[in-house]
């Protein structure tokens, strides 16, 4: 049972990485956006300033030098330097530049020749291919910022200052043609430095704000991450709990049937791959049902826990123990050298389980019956091993319980027979093959028939008349007992009414009630419904309950019996003296009859202890105003003993075997007539003939 767990989602880690990347990205974006905007603003402002400077120059001095510039085309550098107008132009330009952040001024004629420059070395240069010059000659203003140690795209030189170079067309008026180009280099080094400082200040403020926001969100996210982690841990724990519950038994903590199937398949596969044997044990607890019914489910659960621990201690380190449900366990032996190895483990288990267990103050003794199947000799697959180990376990039960048995081929035949019995029972019930026979109960003093016990029979077309001992256990195992029990009660009630309508004197009819019926919440309503529908007289119906059933849930049994008595029914305790008897509970139960178990009747003529026990039961019952019925009476000596005591009724083969319903009226009439004739003879009171 393996499971792959996905890595837990770490919100804080992903938030930190994403947030830091986001902060850097936002800060860098704002930094470069701010820089681009400020540069654009600075460039536009300086371009306008340079254009104003050019217009001021044109308005004030251009008129004196326009002819010089216009006629400079084709002149050499030396010729231009020798012209007297150049000196005047230089003086006027320097006068205009005074007090301004102007690094250099150049004037071009329309041919692109540098007519004037504050840097005399540049006079005479040809700039006709310069893009800024061409834009200005076309009437526009072209500006470009140049940083320290960066290439000047217009001049093609390296500047050591931050400059904005503007090419401005020179016109006399706004509508006049361009007569020259004025290039102004404004020194913006200080402005750029301020801009950069402001840029870093803005970046620092943004980082601080984003960092504060990040810190706040980090606290929130860490809190959320803690909650998510706790929820994830809780979810994982619940998943593990569900997984554990799905594969483990809640009572014993052992792996369950679902996990058993997986591990058995693995064990068989490994054994086949490596060429060794593996074994499977089916373990069923003996007498567990008696404990569960007598002392209740809590005691049964405690016993199961104790037994499972004992079995576990008997196993080897590699062996695997499973609880399949109820009182059934399985053991997988992954490696078995010889069959004797499995037998050794089985003997240890049976010896350990057989030791007394103290539960709720009771010293209980159960046993373990074990069936063993070994791979590959007893099955080539997991399914075959399960089937054959189960068959071996049932074979061991048939052999006397408390032992173990290895699988053999003929066991499958018995398994098939058991399955055939289950199917035949279901079909027989559907087809109306079940019937009731009735055994008379005789008044111990008068030897008159006073009651009848309804006994279930199965009239199978292929098996003949089958007694309940052959199939009651199967009815219990297959869960058919409640519906069959209701059918028995309904049939018995209908029969009493039929006898009454046929003119037979009223007789009580007793019906046995199974544990599963009595403990059901629907039992009392079912009885009430059957009485109403059949029209039977409640006082003529007696329900027989086993004492183990009554002891198991004494409070509930007392309540149920009170409800049944309120309807007018009679209650008897069947097989009294067997199981986990407790005389104390009799004081609290409103019952009418005790039926002494036949085990005390069989040797009562020869065994003083049995006579003493029977006498004590009769005396105790008389003190509690409970009538006693002796069942299993088969000899005159047994009948004579009980007739000499306050025993109320006798039942057994001595008087009559169970009869089909159609023969009961004749028997009762015949016995009553016989009794009358016997009483007519003086001094004869021997009773009914056998």
Written account of the structure:
- The chain is of the alpha/beta class.
- The protein is rod-shaped and about 175 Å long.
- The two termini are 68 Å apart.
- The C terminus is likely disordered.
Short overview:
By secondary structure, the protein is of the alpha/beta class.
- The fraction of residues assigned to DSSP E strands is 15-25%
How far apart lie the N and C ends? 68 Å
- The percentage helix is 40-55%
What structural class results from the helix and strand content?
alpha/beta
What are the defining features of this structure?
690 residues, 8-stranded mixed beta barrel, 21 helices, rod-shaped, alpha/beta, 5-stranded antiparallel β-sheet
Which SSEs are present, and which pair or pack?
Elements: H1 11-70, H2 77-82, H3 84-97, E1 102-108, E2 114-117, H4 131-137, E3 142-146, E4 163-170, E5 180-187, H5 189-247, H6 257-274, E6 277-286, H7 288-295, H8 297-314, E7 320-325, E8 328-336, H9 339-354, E9 357-359, E10 362-364, E11 367-375, H10 382-398, E12 404-406, H11 410-430, E13 434-443, E14 449-460, E15 464-466, H12 472-478, H13 481-501, E16 508-512, H14 515-518, H15 523-534, E17 541-546, H16 547-552, H17 554-566, E18 570-576, E19 593-596, H18 598-601, H19 608-623, E20 627-631, H20 636-643, E21 649-651, E22 659-660, H21 661-680
Parallel strand pairs: 11-12, 14-16, 16-17, 17-18, 18-19, 19-20, 20-21
Antiparallel strand pairs: 1-2, 1-5, 3-4, 4-5, 6-8, 6-11, 7-8, 9-10, 13-14, 13-21, 13-22, 14-15
Helix pairs in contact: 1-3, 1-5, 7-8, 8-9, 10-11, 13-15
């Amino acid at each position: 049972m393996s499971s792959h767990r996905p890595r837990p989602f770490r919100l804080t880690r992903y938030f930190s990485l994403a947030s830091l990347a986001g902060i850097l990205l936002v800060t860098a974006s704002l930094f470069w956006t701010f820089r681009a905007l400020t540069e654009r603003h600075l460039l536009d402002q300086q371009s306008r300033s340079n254009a104003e400077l050019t217009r001021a120059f044109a308005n004030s001095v251009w008129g004196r030098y326009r002819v010089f510039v216009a006629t400079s085309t084709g002149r050499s550098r030396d010729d231009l330097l020798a012209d007297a107008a150049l000196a005047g132009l230089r003086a006027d330009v320097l006068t205009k530049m005074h007090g301004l952040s102007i690094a250099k001024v150049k004037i071009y004629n329309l041919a692109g020749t540098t007519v004037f420059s504050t840097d005399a070395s540049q006079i005479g240069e040809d700039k006709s291919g310069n893009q800024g010059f061409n834009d200005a000659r076309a009437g526009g203003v072209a500006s470009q910022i140049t940083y320290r140690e960066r290439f000047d795209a217009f001049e093609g030189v390296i500047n050591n200052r931050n400059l904005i170079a503007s090419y401005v067309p020179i016109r006399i008026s706004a509508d006049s043609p361009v007569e020259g180009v004025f290039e102004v280099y404004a020194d913006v080094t200080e402005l750029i430095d301020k801009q950069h400082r402001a840029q870093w200040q803005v970046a620092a403020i943004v980082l601080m704000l984003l960092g504060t926001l990040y810190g706040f969100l980090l606290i929130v996210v860490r809190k959320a991450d803690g909650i998510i982690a706790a929820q994830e841990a809780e979810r994982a724990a619940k998943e593990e709990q569900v997984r554990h519950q799905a594969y483990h038994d809640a009572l014993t903590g052992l792996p369950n049937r679902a996990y058993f199937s997986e591990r058995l398949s693995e064990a068989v596969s490994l054994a086949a791959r490596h060429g060794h044997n593996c074994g499977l044990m089916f373990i069923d607890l003996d007498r567990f049902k008696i404990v569960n019914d007598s002392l209740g489910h809590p005691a049964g659960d405690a016993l199961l826990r104790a037994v499972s621990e004992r079995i576990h201690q008997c196993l080897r380190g590699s062996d695997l123990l499973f609880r399949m449900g109820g009182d059934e366990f399985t053991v997988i032996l992954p490696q078995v050298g010889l069959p004797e190895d499995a037998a050794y483990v089985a003997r240890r288990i049976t010896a350990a389980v057989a030791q007394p267990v103290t539960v709720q103050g009771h010293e209980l003794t159960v046993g373990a019956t074990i069936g063993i199947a070994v791979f590959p000799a007893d099955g080539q697959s997991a399914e075959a091993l399960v089937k054959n180990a189960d068959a071996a376990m049932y074979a061991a039960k048939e052999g006397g319980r408390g032992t173990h048995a290895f699988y053999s081929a003929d066991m499958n035949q018995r398994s098939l027979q058991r399955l055939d019995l289950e199917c035949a029972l279901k079909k027989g019930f559907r087809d109306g093959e079940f019937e009731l026979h009735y055994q008379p109960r005789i008044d111990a003093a008068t030897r008159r028939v006073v009651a009848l016990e309804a006994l279930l029979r199965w009239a199978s077309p292929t098996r003949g008349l089958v007694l309940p001992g052959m199939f009651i256990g199967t009815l219990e195992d297959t869960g058919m007992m409640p519906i069959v029990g209701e059918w028995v009660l309904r049939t018995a009630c209908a029969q009493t009414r039929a006898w009454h309508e046929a003119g037979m004197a009223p007789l009580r009819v007793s019906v046995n009630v199974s544990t599963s019926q009595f403990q059901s919440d629907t039992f009392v309503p079912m009885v009430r419904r059957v009485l109403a529908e059949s029209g039977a007289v409640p006082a003529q119906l007696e329900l027989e309950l086993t004492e183990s059933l009554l002891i198991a849930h004494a409070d509930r049994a007392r309540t149920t019996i009170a409800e049944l008595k309120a309807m007018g029914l009679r209650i008897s305790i069947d097989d009294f003296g067997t199981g986990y008897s407790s005389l104390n509970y009799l004081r609290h139960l409103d019952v009418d009859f005790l039926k002494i178990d036949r085990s005390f009747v069989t040797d009562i003529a020869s065994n003083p202890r049995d006579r003493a026990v029977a006498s004590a039961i009769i005396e105790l019952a008389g003190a509690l105003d409970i009538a006693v019925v002796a069942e299993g009476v088969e000899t005159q000596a047994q009948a004579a003993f009980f007739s000499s005591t306050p025993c109320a009724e006798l039942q057994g083969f001595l008087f009559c075997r169970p009869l089909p319903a159609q023969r009961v009226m004749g028997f009762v009439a015949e016995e009553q007539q016989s009794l009358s004739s016997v009483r007519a003879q003086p001094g004869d009171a021997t009773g009914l003939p056998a």
